[in-house]
Amino acid sequence: MSKKRNSPISTPNYEENWKRALADYQNLQRRVEFEKQSFAKLANANLIARLLPSLDILELAASHNQDIGVQLSAKQFHNALAEEGLELIEPAADSLFDHKLHECAETVDLPGE
Questions:
Q1: CA distance 44 to 7
Q2: For position 3, what pLDDT does the model report?
Q3: Is 77 within 8 Å of 55 (Cβ atoms)?
Q4: Which of 70, 67, 51, 46 is CA-nearest to residue 59?
Q5: What letter would DSSP give residue 99?
Q6: How much is the mean pLDDT over the chain?
Q7: CB-hemisphere CA count at 13 Å for 15?
């Protein structure tokens, strides 16, 4: 005996599940892209932190030497870092230490204090 169904197969559940799966996939794509960008930023920050001591030595050499090649190398190094978003912060002599902007290299006791 074959029975005929009186009601058509309901497809709203299939469509809803498909839309939900598509939204989940799009969210996954966004999350992966964000994580790739975050990783790249972190990798760049670590690389820059490792290169800054070399820049200090290059600047010292440029200040003690009149060789145009050393001076151009230091300038090119600065330009490359500036293109990556790194900028030099030079506080005024009378400004107070701001831990959000500055890094303490040493502390010095002032005479008379």
A1: 61
A2: 53
A3: yes
A4: 70
A5: T
A6: 85
A7: 4
Euclidean distance between CA atoms 83 and 58, whole angstroms: 19
68-83 vs 12-64: helix crossing angle, rounded to 10: 160
Tokens 């030595």 identify what position?
57
Quick one: tokens of 83?
Answer: 């293109």
Residues 6+ apart with CB under 8 A from 102: 89, 91
User: 31: number of CA atoms within 13 Å, CB side?
Assistant: 6
Among residues 103, 84, 105, 96, which one has the least CA distance to residue 41?
84
Residues of the chain scoring pLDDT < 70: 1-12, 113
**Alpha carbon 111 to chain centroid, angstroms:** 42
Amino acid letter, 39: F
HSE toward the beta carbon, residue 102, CA cutoff 13 A: 11
State the chain's maximal CA–CA distance in angstroms: 108
Q: How far apart are CA 103 and CA 99, in angstroms?
A: 7
- Residue 12, pLDDT score: 67
